[in-house]
Design goal:
Blueprint (H helix, E strand, L loop, with lengths): L1 H5 L14 H8 L3 E3 L2 H9 L13 E4 L4 H10 L4 E6 L8 E2 L13 E2 L9 E5 L12 E6 L11 H7 E2 L2 E10 L5 E6 L3 E4 L2 E4 H9 L4 E10 L5 E9 L7 H9 L10 E5 L12 H5 L9 E2 L1 H6 L3
């Protein structure tokens, strides 16, 4: 959509390849690209020998960009503008950090604007649809002229998602006093453990900061006490070893006690969509999910967590 509006050329690659990315960027004269979190981590994990400094990329657009990734793309890959934002298939590019403004780490920015027409509207609502004040966490709802009209041949799902012209995203977020929005997690990815709500994304972000980790996927698994337990599935960098105890200790120093994973599963790779998104639903359906994981409950108790 952005390329069409700008009268620019759009380059579509059949399959993403981290090893060929910089070569392709130079070949096609790419000046801007969009990416999701896993793509950023994959590029960072590659050898410097594959990087081509002759690229012309001036801006990259992502979502939930960790500070380490941001610094790497600016300094190591020489990309001036690393732009965090938020969008959905149903409503693309809802908001972003304005280009040229001070970076606010962890924020997905301000509502997108258009020079000629009213564009994105956003608000945070409670379970009854009432708007919450700044600082209150609730569901993000949006309005935009580029929002979908509805789900194909699914009027019931459309009616559920679009109410009074507002699209209910299914994502938890909050807004600060300055009007900047912050993503918390998908409603379906919130883990309920012993009366506490845990954001899977928050735990993933902490684990992904470990230099040994390529990617983490945190999911809820059943607890014998009811509700959920936290499981961290982790893919390590090639040739790197990490023990489940290291994972627990890393999390212990950076998370509240109730957020530290009980189960740790170390694996080579994750099931992915065509756009390299991790398929948590597929992971949850694996029959040997728990048998291939390390139960760290006894170790956590020895650490009094």
């Amino acid at each position: 959509m952005g390329a069409i509006a700008a009268g620019a050329s759009l380059v579509i690659i059949r399959d993403f390849s981290a090893s060929r990315f910089w070569e392709q960027a130079v070949k096609y004269g790419v000046t801007q690209f969009n990416f999701i979190g896993a793509v950023g981590r994959m590029l960072m994990a590659r050898s410097d020998a594959e990087f081509n400094p002759q690229h012309k990329i001036r801006a990259m657009n992502g979502a939930g960009i960790p500070e380490a990734d941001y610094k790497a793309f600016v300094s190591r890959f020489k990309i001036p503008y690393v732009i965090d934002g938020y969008g959905l298939t149903e409503c693309p590019r809802v908001c972003q950090i304005p280009i040229g403004e001070a970076v606010k780490m962890g924020s997905m920015g301000l509502p997108s604007k258009h020079p000629a027409i009213e564009f994105t509207k956003m608000k945070i609502v409670d379970d009854n649809g009432g708007e919450l004040p700044p600082g209150g966490t609730g569901e993000l709802v949006v309005k935009s002229p580029v929002m979908m009209r509805g789900y194909f041949r699914d009027p019931e799902k459309t009616k559920e998602a679009i109410r009074d012209g507002w699209f209910y995203t299914g994502d938890y977020a909050y807004k600060n006093e300055g009007g900047y929005y912050y993503f918390v997690d998908r409603k379906k990815d919130i883990i309920r453990r012993r009366g506490e709500n845990i954001s899977a994304r928050e735990v993933e972000t902490v684990i992904n900061e470990n230099p040994k980790v390529v990617e983490a996927a945190v999911i809820a698994v059943p607890s014998e006490l009811g509700e959920d337990e936290v499981m961290a599935c982790i893919a390590l960098k090639p040739g790197i070893n990490m023990t489940p105890e290291e994972v627990v200790l890393w999390c212990k120093e950076r998370l509240a006690r109730f957020k530290v994973p009980r189960y740790v599963q170390l694996r080579d790779r994750f099931p992915k969509t065509a756009t390299q998104r991790t398929q948590k639903n597929v992971i949850k359906e694996e029959k040997d999910l728990l048998t291939k994981a390390h139960d760290m409950e006894a170790f956590k108790k020895s650490l009094k967590i």
